Amino acid sequence: MASFAERLATAVRQKGTPTLVGIDPRFEQLPPSLQTDSSLAGQAAAFEKFSCELIDAIADLVAVIKPQAAFYEQLGPLGMAALAKTVSYAREKGLLVILDCKRGDIGSTAEAYAKAYLGDVSAWGADCLTVSPYLGDDSLTPFVDQCTATDSGIFVLVKTSNPGSGTLQDLSIDGKTIYRRMAEHVESLAAATKAPGQQYGAVGAVVGATYPEQLSELREVMPSAWLLVPGFGSQGGGPKDVAAAFDADGLGGLINNSRGLNFAFAKEPYKSTYGAARWQDASAAATRDMIAALAAETTAGRLA
Amino acid sequence: MASFAERLATAVRQKGTPTLVGIDPRFEQLPPSLQTDSSLAGQAAAFEKFSCELIDAIADLVAVIKPQAAFYEQLGPLGMAALAKTVSYAREKGLLVILDCKRGDIGSTAEAYAKAYLGDVSAWGADCLTVSPYLGDDSLTPFVDQCTATDSGIFVLVKTSNPGSGTLQDLSIDGKTIYRRMAEHVESLAAATKAPGQQYGAVGAVVGATYPEQLSELREVMPSAWLLVPGFGSQGGGPKDVAAAFDADGLGGLINNSRGLNFAFAKEPYKSTYGAARWQDASAAATRDMIAALAAETTAGRLA
């Protein structure tokens, strides 16, 4: 199998867009037709149906999805089964899956997480994971090793999109911020995991669209790392904010939108045109609009 | 219901020990009688049996257990079902459960994690979670709110036990380390979540036994926070290394041992006395020995 970075580049080129569809099921925001049974089992069944129908709606449009584990975990083991089904269904449809679970632990425990989630041989079978780096450099090693062994990838939290991300990440030591130090470490891991002739390695970074200046700085610091950029849409980031994520060919950045695409049916202009009865069409239309906006205002326009 | 900190203090006093039994099932290290079926379903059944029998073996000896989610997650949704059973079984036996899953995310996603795991109303029903703080202060708020709403608790990673914990946590800004800054924030959250007349709040800190000097420093910085101290036993920490975790009454510290208690049957002196056939007795004996060692060399001796 090709490396994760190669598969990602190929898939993004093929679909012609860096749009990443996040899947964040929230029971009370689902279309009313899916809110019929609020028991844990009923909610889990609704999450599975919602996730799979959303995948059907956007599978021809984008290359990658990012299910957010937290929402499925909220429903206990039944929710986890819905998450597993979501991952396998997306992969059957030819999509790459980044599981957003921000795991991180020491030594052999990190290894257990890596083996749990990464690659075809794992129980969850994701292509890629998000990973939290508070425990230090050695806590990332088992994930990187598993990426190499299974042609999978990770995105390490570097500069997150939330208002309080600065309390730790922006602290500066000898003129260098924590997020920049973390970025330099990610770059070293990315460079070390490049397949021959490739621009990007198996290790990428999460950098929020809500901090455009830092995004620009971090694109320079990490020339070998794919950037996963959350914060587009509901959190306030727009196409111009994320333009710095891409290289000259329109590669190197994945722009995530979750709520804005998941629940498009509840907001104009999609609400009037489609409404809850045609929520899948609303999600597809909102995805198309995001693809067009990114193509118009960033180098992603060169992918098509 | 009493607050988590009150329930914890009561339970630790009642059992007379701060020993925390970690549950880290690893299929290849289980007693051979539990290694009969290596399919995912077979491994999940073995994890459930191992976890529940271990709980039976130590329920009369200690107040708290700490299942490590990573090992159960490795088995996919079936493993998560075994984890849920482990949590509910331990609580039926009157034990407090700290679920070690080091979750952390932004805003409403952190809220989903908090609602997933904390308190009787949650799908998982744990008393307490471990939480990773890389995303910043605001990422902890939803967990703290849920602690207050459900009389549950969290332990925030401050100074972890792994060799590489220093790469981020020991960085120093204006003479103050990251772990110390984090500790000061934990102390503010702990102080703000104290029940009337209590010494400790709902927010505690993870501080590794492998760094005794930092443990001593951090006990002073966080007078309102319970400390969860991993790294005892297999990772090299001994009773003298963890003595600083406790207050004068022997409270305020929980000393975790996982592998050393889980797989005691495979090591002397328990191997000769009990062996794999009586692995539960080996775990109980190793737990008793740890309790005695802590009582002899720390203020935990005053609990009895």
From TrEMBL, chains A, B:
Give the top-level enzyme category. Answer: lyase
Pfam families given for it?
OMPdecase (PF00215)
Q: Does the entry feature the keyword Lyase, yes or no?
A: yes
Question: Which family does the similarity line name?
Answer: Belongs to the OMP decarboxylase family. Type 2 subfamily.
Please name the taxonomic classification of the source. Answer: Bacteria, Pseudomonadati, Planctomycetota, Planctomycetia, Pirellulales
Q: Which HAMAP family match?
A: OMPdecase_type2
According to its UniProt record, in which pathway does this protein act? Pyrimidine metabolism; UMP biosynthesis via de novo pathway; UMP from orotate: step 2/2
Q: What is this protein called?
A: Orotidine 5'-phosphate decarboxylase
List, alphabetically, the PROSITE patterns matched: OMPDECASE
